[in-house]
Design brief:
Number of helices of chain B: 3
Largest sheet of chain B: none
Radius of gyration of chain A: 30 Å
Distance between the termini of chain B: 55 Å
Oligomer: heterodimer
CATH architecture of chain B: Orthogonal Bundle
Strand content of chain B: under 5%
Shape of chain A: globular
Number of strands of chain A: 4
Number of strands of chain B: 0
Structural class of chain A: mainly alpha
CATH topology of chain B: Helix Hairpins
Helix content of chain A: over 70%
CATH class of chain B: Mainly Alpha
Largest interface: A-B, 12 and 13 residues
Strand order of the largest sheet of chain A: 1-4
Number of helices of chain A: 27
Radius of gyration of chain B: 17 Å
Order of helices and strands of chain B: HHH
Helix content of chain B: over 70%
């Protein structure tokens, strides 16, 4: 395929963004749906081209397509180019991003109908899709960083889409600032790598790391710096606090940005620079432990939230932790395979939550219930996504999660046990959501909602059905090991053999499946059959419940202790002293010296003309004397 | 008495100049200051004529220059007195110590 077409994958949404911003928004009526159709058309184009790229990469002998670079900045010997890196990782990411984006854009046609910011919404969604596609295509770290910041900007704009709500505006700022903390490490790592190698090119850095030229502390620190950027974007502990708040944005935004693509960009970045991590044991261990800890930590908070979107948000953090764990223990293929599957079922969960919100006017699960009869499509697709997330055979989540567990078991038992407990928690919290939302009797919805809940329109249901199909089948790509082979792990077997044989070789998959089913059963027993009382359990484990429900007081720790005391009263106050007394002191001191000097010298200006004459005379005499004596 | 030479003229000129300088710097009355300046100018005139007469008698440079000085001195006296008049009308004094608008 001609390489210009690959550029188009990223440029098509850029065009739709430009057209919507400069032509549609100023000149077309707000009720018109043209912005949505434009975006959808552009993304269909990107998806078709992405699929063609994927087939081309699959066909290519070493799973890579070479694309000529464009010179961007030339400073002396330094030549920074714009280029595309098209390998198996890029091809998979392109398909994931454009597929989920397309489904979300179609869904938004229903969800955002009649919103006054409709055009703005689609302009930003186009820009986001373009930046995300640009990010996965970039072939040097500088280009990655530029798109990295662009997706962060779009995330900020879309979280704060309803900026007239203070909570949304604050959540947007929080997301932007917290991820920026991680980006600091990323930028530092880019500069450190550049200082030691003189290149930003990812392929070159790979070969340097493999050859051992780039090694030791430099490699470890740059890998950890890159991981800190990834942790910010992927909401890993301790930078996880922004993602739950980001749920203030419109739900399709959460589905696209905060479930399937942008938050996965961190995982992608680690996978993209994986050779750097691979050659530094400390960096890999850091990633593995932070990943595993984030997984269980976020899952524990997901257990007790009452807001459906927040549970799904914590679930996203937890699953991103899994991906990091998978990357660190099993390599690119395993981590990215989970990213691939997760994108579909998690986007579907969010779209389901949005659909429920559309019907009931609330995200509070205590006000829902009984929606299975009213919303059959939503509840069925949500159930599929939930089963997939819980890791039930043979849905997609099972395959990737099992690989991560196996890899963790081989590497470090502690990580394995953490991951296994998380499996049970995941199954429990997602089925808690399912039973509370769709099971039992309807509890009235939002007090402000009017009318009866109803199934969402076809334009919203259709994308959910497509994603549900993907959530069932996407995992089959690696049943025979084909995905792993594509990513460079060569072990393949027959499909049927893989599909059933997985339980034969090792007891692990069966144990994981049992644990997941136990979690689902507990959720059923508590929230559907009511054999166990949720309130009673809550009372018994009161301190634990409070700990989870208050999110381990991390928001309070960051805001009240770190920001308000350590930063505002400590560092910032100290800096202010330097500013007041140091910087201002120098400036004011200079000025007052000049004033004082002027005041002193002023005395000599008496205004007596004759005195001036006298001085002139004395002066002349002095000059004459000097000439006479020394001349 | 026959040997009055250049030095005598220059001494006279120096004495007159010093008297004028003293008057210009020490007197408080503006009119007197103007008069003192006239004395200083005339001291210079004497010096110039004396130089001309004794050093280059065949040329009249010094005498011509003196004529110019006289013209300028006349103009200066006219303008100076006009300024003194103007100051007196405005401030009702011509004491030089009272005229200190430039005092810092």
């Amino acid at each position: 395929m001609p390489y210009q077409l690959i550029w188009l994958i990223f440029l098509l949404p850029v065009f739709s963004f430009l057209i919507i911003s400069f032509l549609v928004r100023p000149f077309v009526k707000p009720e018109s749906k043209v912005a949505g159709y434009l975006t959808i058309a552009a993304i269909i184009g990107s998806l078709v081209l992405s699929l063609r790229t994927l087939t081309a990469v699959l066909a290519a002998s070493n799973h890579e397509i070479a694309v000529p670079n464009i010179s961007w900045v030339v400073i002396g010997d330094l030549n920074i180019s714009l280029g595309l890196m098209v390998d198996s990782l890029t091809a998979v990411m392109l398909v994931v991003v454009s597929t989920v984006s397309l489904m979300v854009q179609i869904y938004s046609q229903g969800y955002m109908k009649g919103d006054p910011g409709y055009h703005r919404y689609y302009a930003w969604m186009s820009l986001f899709t373009a930046s995300m596609l640009g990010l996965v295509l970039a072939d040097n770290l500088l280009q990655v960083f530029a798109f990295w910041e662009l997706v962060g900007l779009c995330s900020y704009l879309l979280i704060g889409f309803w900026f007239h709500r203070p909570s949304a505006a604050n959540a947007a700022k929080k997301a932007f600032i917290v991820t920026r903390l991680g980006d600091f490490g990323f930028l530092a790592a880019i500069l450190l790598l550049f200082k030691h190698t003189g290149t930003f090119d990812i392929a070159q850095l790979h070969s340097l790391a493999v050859a051992g030229t780039l090694a030791g502390t430099t490699l470890t620190w740059s890998a950890i710096g890159i991981f800190s950027g990834a942790a910010g974007k992927s909401a890993q502990f301790p930078l996880h606090v922004w993602l739950p708040d980001a749920m203030e944005g419109p739900t399709p935004v959460s589905a696209l940005i905060h479930a399937a693509t942008m938050v996965a960009a961190g995982v992608f970045l680690v996978a993209r620079t994986f050779p750097l991590f691979e050659h530094s044991a400390q960096a890999l261990t850091t990633v593995a432990f932070i990943g595993a800890f984030t997984a269980i930590f976020a899952a524990s908070m997901g257990l007790v939230m009452t807001d459906i979107k927040r549970v799904v948000a914590y679930s996203t953090i937890s699953q991103l932790g899994y991906m990091m764990l998978g990357l660190a223990t099993g390599g690119v293929a395993i981590g990215i395979f989970h990213l691939f599957n997760h994108a579909f079922f998690k986007a579907l969960l969010f779209l389901g939550a949005g659909s429920v919100n559309h019907a009931t006017g609330t995200f509070d699960m205590r006000l829902m219930g009984g929606l299975r009869k009213i919303m059959p499509w939503t509840s069925t697709t949500f159930l599929i996504a939930a089963l997939s997330l819980a890791g039930i055979w043979p849905l997609s989540g099972f395959w990737s999660k099992d690989e991560i567990l196996a890899a963790a078991y081989d590497k470090q038992p502690v990580l394995f046990y953490l991951a296994m407990i998380t499996v049970a928690m995941t199954a429990f919290y997602i089925f808690r959501v399912f039973f509370l939302t769709f099971g039992g009797e309807y509890r009235g919805g939002s007090p402000e909602a009017h009318g009866h809940p109803h199934e969402s329109p076809t334009v919203m249901v259709a994308p959910m059905v497509v994603l549900a199909v993907l959530a069932i089948f996407s995992g089959f790509w690696n049943v025979s090991g084909a995905f792993g082979a594509f990513m460079g792990h060569a072990e393949t077997q027959g499909f049927v053999q893989g599909l059933f044989g997985i339980f034969i070789h090792s007891p692990l998959p069966l144990i994981a499946l049992m644990v997941a089913i136990l979690g689902i059963f507990l959720a059923y027993a508590t929230y559907s059959a009511k054999w166990l009382s949720a309130e009673q359990i809550g009372r018994i484990f009161r301190p634990l419940y409070t700990l989870f429900y208050r999110k381990y007081w991390f928001d309070e720790l960051y805001e009240n202790i770190i920001v308000k005391i350590a930063l505002l009263k400590g560092i910032f106050a100290g800096l202010q002293q330097i500013d007041t007394y140091g910087v201002d002191g120098i400036v004011n001191g200079l000025a007052s010296t000049a004033i004082g000097g002027g005041r002193a010298i002023r005395r000599s200006q008496t205004g007596q003309l004759q005195l001036y004459g006298l001085f002139i005379g004395i002066g002349i005499l002095a000059i004459i004397l000097v000439i006479y004596v020394f001349g | 008495m026959n040997n009055i030479g250049l030095e005598h003229y220059l001494i006279l000129s120096a004495i007159l100049f010093s008297i004028g300088l003293y008057g210009a710097l020490a007197k408080r009355n503006a009119i007197v200051i103007l008069m003192s300046i006239e004395i200083m100018l005339n001291a210079v005139n004497i010096a110039m004529v004396a130089f001309s007469r004794y050093i280059v008698p065949e040329q009249l440079t010094g005498q011509v220059f003196t004529i110019f000085v006289l013209v300028v001195a006349a103009a200066e006296a006219a303008v100076g007195l006009a300024i003194v008049m103007a100051i007196y009308r405005n401030r009702e004094t011509i004491e030089s110590t009272d005229i200190d608008l430039l005092k810092g």
